[in-house]
């Protein structure tokens, strides 16, 4: 009887172990639980950034030939502008009737010449010349006749001076000459020859032949010369000479 109980107990334990093994095998074969069919939550949207601007393509450098052409064009325009400036400056310094320097232009040239004389110890002379009897000609025959006299006087002056000398009209019937490298004796001789050449001019207006004449005064330009003072000195000498010539023509003073 005890042996039967022992066998029975052993069989029970063996059956329990077999049952556990079957249960473990079934648990291993059991499929994993199915995933939920509900959609997974989406992450929050990222903040929008402004759309980037498209990059600006860099301008290609100008070709060498294009740059040279632009430089040539600019140089030509600059030359034209400078020529126009020179033309305007020249017209501002020129007497439109006689095509010689006006007072402004002559004084500019005189100042330059005096500076040169001082620096290089050169010499020169200024002659101021006044046309005689121009007013009676204008009054009797008109200003066109007077203009003709003035043009003839300028032609005489141009024939009696060198190309390096300067002729200018100070105003009305008064002229000035800048002569280089003349002593006082030479300057006085030149003034006298100019007076004589103008005295010999003859004009016919309205069937009448008339003459004009001129009176000249000088001032010497040396190392200590001043342009303004030289013009004043020559002008005073011219009026003295005009009085002398008037007395020579009419010693009694009746004219």
Description of the molecule:
Strands 2-3-1-6 form a 4-stranded antiparallel β-sheet, with helices on both faces. The protein has a two-stranded antiparallel sheet with strand order 4-5. It has 7 helices and 6 strands; from the N terminus they run αααβααββαβββα. The chain has a domain at 96-248: 2-Layer Sandwich (Alpha-Beta Plaits), CATH 3.30.70. The chain starts with a helix and ends in a 6-residue tail after the last helix. It has 255 residues and is of the alpha+beta class. A hairpin with a 2-residue loop joins strand 2 (166-171) and strand 3 (174-180). Helix 4 packs antiparallel against helix 5. It has helices at residues 2-29, 64-92, 103-120, 134-141, 143-159, 184-199, 227-249, and strands spanning 124-131, 166-171, 174-180, 203-205, 208-210, 214-221.
How would you sum up this structure in a few lines?
With 255 residues, this protein is an alpha+beta fold. The protein is built from 7 helices and 6 strands.
CATH homologous superfamily of the domain at 96-248? Reverse transcriptase/Diguanylate cyclase domain
What's the number of extended β-strand segments?
6
Query: What CATH architecture of the domain at 96-248 would you give?
Result: 2-Layer Sandwich
The whole-angstrom Rg is 58 Å
Strand order of the largest sheet: 2-3-1-6
CATH class categorisation of the domain at 96-248: Alpha Beta
Labels describing this entry:
Alpha-Beta Plaits; disordered N terminus; single chain; elongated; two-stranded antiparallel ribbon; 255 residues
